[in-house]
Specification:
Elements lengths: L56 E5 L5 E4 L7 E6 L2 H13 L3 E6 L6 H6 L7 E4 L15 E6 L15 E7 L6 H7 L2 E4 L4 H11 L3 H6 L7 E5 L4 E5 L4 H7 L7
Parallel strand pairs: 3-7, 3-8, 4-5, 4-6, 6-7
Antiparallel strand pairs: 1-2, 8-9, 9-10
């Protein structure tokens, strides 16, 4: 680019839109204002850092008040098991739908999901309900990710629709059940809400939890979940927004 008195693309030569008044440049539009360039040294770049979390669903805040994010929209299969209450699973469904995911709920109690399915998506059918064992193929893709929520009681059968690229599966267990060990072993992420002391001991052995975490499980408040992976553990408090609380009521562990 030349100085203010010059032209770009030959606009100053001959007649036409770029000649005479200098009001335009062929193919480039009007000349912008000239300002001193803003520069920063490499040593000062760290001062521009901003806290950016992972991409996904904000599920609450951790013990230090930072946002906790659950990345359910993934190009690889992702299995999640939640030993907890319906309220938390429904908040996750609403928030996943708000990110653009389609949510398919496999449940034997459609009546407790129907109001949510009607309210989600602003009139668009982004949350669908299906009988146990009747979830059709969802056609998940990068442009249309899917979260399948399996609310099938204490002994959920093996699902017809499984985790795959851009399709995550969350299985909700109200309490520790005989199927829990298998589910916990195959899950990439496990969430545990308030359980009995005996259940806490079993979960601690299955998940290799430290002693303080095991002892805290029977005392967790409503809306608090211990999220565990093979290496990391994090307590998260989930609080409903005004709209979520109006639809689902206050946070609760027992349905």
């Amino acid at each position: 680019m030349t100085g203010a008195s010059g032209t770009a693309g030959g606009a100053g030569h001959g007649s036409g839109a770029g000649s005479g008044s200098g009001s335009g440049r062929i193919g480039y539009g009007l000349l912008g204002p000239r300002r001193e360039r803003h520069t920063i040294s490499a040593a000062d770049l760290d001062a521009l850092a901003v806290p950016v979390g992972d991409d996904g669903v904000v599920i609450g805040v951790d013990s230090e008040g930072r946002s906790a994010v659950l990345g359910v929209n993934r190009p690889t299969p992702y299995e999640v098991t939640l030993i907890g209450g319906l309220w938390t699973a429904q908040v996750l469904a609403l928030r996943a739908a708000a990110t653009g995911a389609r949510v398919a709920v496999e449940t034997g109690r459609a009546q407790v999901w129907s109001a949510l399915a009607q309210a989600a998506g602003g009139g668009q059918q982004c949350v669908t309900l299906h009988e146990v064992g009747r979830v059709p193929p969802q056609g998940a893709s990068a442009g249309s990710p899917v979260l399948v929520i399996r609310d099938c009681g204490m002994r959920p059968p093996r699902g017809r629709v499984v985790a795959g690229p851009w399709q995550s599966v969350l299985t909700l267990l109200p309490y520790l059940s005989p199927t829990a060990p298998r589910l916990l072993r195959q899950s990439s992420l496990v969430g545990v809400q308030r359980v009995s002391p005996d259940e806490a001991e079993q979960i601690g052995r299955l998940m290799n939890l430290p002693r303080p975490a095991v002892e805290s499980l029977p005392t967790l408040g409503d809306g608090v979940t211990l999220w565990c992976t093979g290496r990391d553990r994090q307590f998260v408090m989930t609080q409903g927004t005004e709209a979520e609380s109006g639809l689902l009521g206050p946070a609760r562990r027992i349905d």
